[in-house]
Design brief:
Elements (H helix, E strand, L loop, with lengths): L11 E4 L2 E10 L6 E6 L4 E6 L3 E4 L1 H14 L16 H9 L5
Antiparallel strand pairs: 1-2, 1-5, 2-3, 3-4
The structure holds zinc ion (ZN).
């Protein structure tokens, strides 16, 4: 018996190594920071990091932003326990969670 995967066609994105539209199916759960997706070309599920994603639908964009908001660690603090919004560590942390368009 084969399980049928229900895809939400609104949640498409392109993969940098495969020119077909792929579809988000959820959190990878096995790999921190990765999502689970379906590749129609290979007919298989794959684990994808954000850096592997190319263009995406606006729905996918919002899904990813919500996913990253729940997955990223807290911002770094300085020796006084404060956020240093102008510090290099904070900038590095801030840039690591953004999607490049
Ligand atoms: Zn693919």
């Amino acid at each position: 018996m084969k399980n049928k995967i229900e895809l939400d066609e609104n949640l498409w994105f392109t993969h940098r190594c495969c020119n077909e539209k792929h579809y988000l199916t959820g959190n990878s759960r096995f790999f921190h920071g990765k999502v689970y997706a379906w590749c129609p070309k290979k007919s298989q599920s794959i684990h994808v990091s954000i850096s592997e994603m190319g263009s995406m639908s606006i729905f996918c964009n919002y899904w990813i932003n919500g996913f990253l908001s729940g997955s990223i660690p807290n911002p770094p603090i300085n020796s006084k326990g404060d956020l240093d919004l102008l510090g290099d560590e904070y900038k590095k942390w801030d840039n690591s969670s953004k999607i490049n368009y």
